[in-house]
Amino acid sequence: SGMSATPCFVSNSAPIEACRTKEDWDRYFNAKLLTGDIPSDPYPIILRFLSFAHEKGGRIWFPGCGLDPYPITYAQEGCKVFATDFSPVAVRFQQRLAATFLKETEASRGQCTFVVVEHDFTKATPDEKFDIVINCRAFQGLSSGAMDAAAGNFSAALRPGGACIIDTMNVQGQERDRIE
Any idea what DSSP says for residue 49? Predict the structure, then answer.
């Protein structure tokens, strides 16, 4: 598209912050899927916000979900999950997880849901309201203006008493096991 002068590579010397366009992110996510290098945190790290999410009501928006296991994991734990990304590759990946999950849990689903749509969280707020917004590793690479827009959209998407968690833990590659 000519919009990104820096190609999106992921290594110790070129961070994912080089990804700027949908095409960059699609290439990044396709490369991850082709190599099987799908990001994941240890299960206790993924679930560290679960009890808080349930206390707040369990309706969660995961903006910029990418290939993260957070949305499927929270759906499996009984939450109403709305996952979004602006990369069609990431959305299709999460939609496959959602379809399998919903098929496997159809009879016993109860209150949990898992919906995935293409959406740019820096441009708009979803029509729904949420108890919790959890943004994992999709905030720190934004420009200052996009951060402001995203924070405003996260806030506007919350129900009264809701909370927003912007998690950038381990995004720089240094492994830490707690939020600082």
Answer: G
